[in-house]
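Continuing the batch. This is chain 6 of the set; chains 1 through 5 are on the previous pages. Same settings as before, nothing changed between runs. Recording input and output for traceability.
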Amino acid sequence: MRRTIESMRIEELTKLFKRQPFRPFTIHMSDGSAYTVTHPDQVILTPRAAYVGIGNSKDDAVVQDVVICDMVHITRLGPEPKRTRKRRK
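Output for chain 6:
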C-alpha cells in the first residue's frame, strides 16, 4: 500500500505531539506563513487538515482564532525558533 503525502504528514505531526517531554515546533505553509505550536492541545488533526489554535500572549489556554492548515500545503515541520538572549554589556 502506498502512503499519501497527507498520511505521512499526519504521522510526522503525531510523532511531534507524542514526544516526551513535549517540545514546541513550527508548522510551515506553502504561502510562507508559519504557526508555532507550544502545546499539543493547541492542534486538532483530521485526515486532511490541522486546525491550529492561535492564542493571545496573556493566556495561552484561550485561543482567539483558529487557522486551518491543509495537509497538502504544509511544507515542513521544524523546531520552534530559539529565542536569543540579549547580552549584557
